[in-house]
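Aim 2 progress update. The chain analyzed this quarter is reproduced below.
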Amino acid sequence: MIKAQHNILGFYDNILARIGVDNGSYSDSIDNKDVLVKLATNTMPAIQLLVDDATTATIQLLDEDDADVGSALSMIVTDLTSYKRLNYLSTSLSGNSCGIYSLKIINGLNTYYSDQFMWEDSVSEYLKISAVSSDVKLGGTYVVDLTNFTYEFYLSADYIGIEHEMASEDSEKLSVPNVLYADFKPTRQFGILCTENTYRFLSGLRILESNGTVTIEYGYISYTANDILVDAESNGTTMSITLKFIDKSEILSVSNNI
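Predicted structure tokens:
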């Protein structure tokens, strides 16, 4: 059984949960092709699951119809007494084509299925997000080991533009206002349609950034993201979100002695 997870793809204890069974009827809420996470073709993402029991575990690539593609790959299993950590670091495969895929983790008698994702030959048109950080906790109990672990993926996004915040402190000298201190903080905003799991992961970037580095790239421009916030509206399990962040290098400040 999955105890906890924080991945760019959600994992489920059975394939029906991944497909999206809602009150006994199928929906495309989770297998929503319009909101899939994108990866560069042949890139296997870094994955970490915290489960109740394990001795060995493998990760298997599946095609759109959930058939095995290639051979299963080994995962690192760490025994943490009250739970087990299954870890797979990102790597590159070869010989596969772009298209829709998913992952399957086999852990003894247990099989876990991931959200589907899209392999793309060209990812330059998408919003790229990458994050490295120190270890984090889930539920105050389960430790996600982020040593040598890099989250990296792409999303369809629309650039909304800059929202600015200006803070200043003024005084007067010879009846003329003088700025003692001021700073201008341009907040960049992107509109994204995504699944609930992607929304949760994006919201968690604020935690990862507090003890690491989050890099966001769009239109061939790279930003080091700080003060990351996510506003969301829900339509079932499909989320319409606004991702907001500040790049500290773009903050304009002044401090005068008068």
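The longest helix spans residues 196-210. The two ends are 65 Å apart (CA to CA). These observations will guide the mutagenesis experiments scheduled for the next reporting period.
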